[in-house]
Every structure is written in C-alpha cells, then in structure tokens.
Amino acid sequence: MKKKSNNREYINFDPHKGWPVGEGLYYECLLCGKELSTTEDSFCMCYNLLVDASAGRIGAKHEDKVRLFRFVDDDKNLRA
Q1: For residues 68 and 2, which has the higher predicted lDDT (pLDDT)?
Q2: What is the reported pLDDT for 26?
Q3: What is the DSSP string of 1-64?
C-alpha cells in the first residue's frame, strides 16, 4: 500500500524482508528528518540510518523510525 504527501509517494516495506534500493528511492529518518538516497553512501544526522550502497547494505537502529519514498510530480510521473 502506498500513501502520497508533499510530492512524495511513501512505500510500505518490511526491513526484515530486505531494504528496497534503486534509482529514485529514498529513506527518511523520522528522528532527525534527513533524507538519504538508496544509491549513495550516507548516514543521517542522528546516526539512526545508514546507507552503505557500495557494499549493498542499509540499516537502522530504530527501523520503525524510517520511511521509504520516491518523489512524484503533479502529473503522477516520477521526477528525475
């Protein structure tokens, strides 16, 4: 199930079944608000969320405080 808000399409996922990755997919840390691309190495400001794209790893200390989303435009097309 998906939910739209602020030009974002939020996507439900179960981190125990894997962390989705791909161009145009982002994770948002609900603790500090940082948004991370799934294709670039990065971590959030509060160190809850880590994306190690070069090693194919993503994880969070508090998995329930992370949301997956993609940007969409007003015409419901994916934004580049």
Answers
A1: 68
A2: 98
A3: -EEEETTEEEE---GGG-----TT-EEEETTT--EEETTS-EE-TTSSEEEEGGGTEEEESSGG
CA angle 52, 73, 43 (to 5 degrees): 15
Residues 6+ apart with CB under 8 A from 51: 27, 36, 37, 38, 40, 41, 42, 43, 57, 58
Specify the amino acid at residue 1. Answer: M
Query: What pLDDT score was predicted for residue 73?
Result: 78
Q: What angle do CA 76, 56, 47 make, to 5 degrees?
A: 85
